[in-house]
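>> received
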Amino acid sequence: MKVNQFREPGLEEDYVDVHYREYNDEIRRILALTESGNTLWGKREGVQACLSPEEIYYFETVDRKCFACLKEEVYQVEIGIQSAVERFGSLGFVRISKSAAVNVYKVRQLTADMNMRMQLLLDNGEKVVLNRSYKNEFLQFIKERRMQK
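>> returned
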């Protein structure tokens, strides 16, 4: 992808134009990045780090604390699951249980589980459970993403 940058001191407002041949995941992510403040601060072992939503595999709440789970690291974040879904839903995050939301772009495989639940295998090898009460919402989210391509 070619990117052109121009500094124009006389502009009253900054703007971004996106030109594309086909609407795909890369274009959707670029547009989502321009639409909201997408950085998130997380804390791990007393150190603050700026996290990009695209590197987050899932959010999980444990003991009333919310964590952002990356490929190999886990950071405590100051937002809750619902806030994460509202803020990053356009980037692919959807609720999968009362205490978790997953980045659909990190899901490699869906497998049926007991009691109408499903197991999601993530790109990093972790497995998370999609509860049956969130199953329809998850599948609808996936269907809508396919239709946008």
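>> The chain is about 25% helix and 30% strand.
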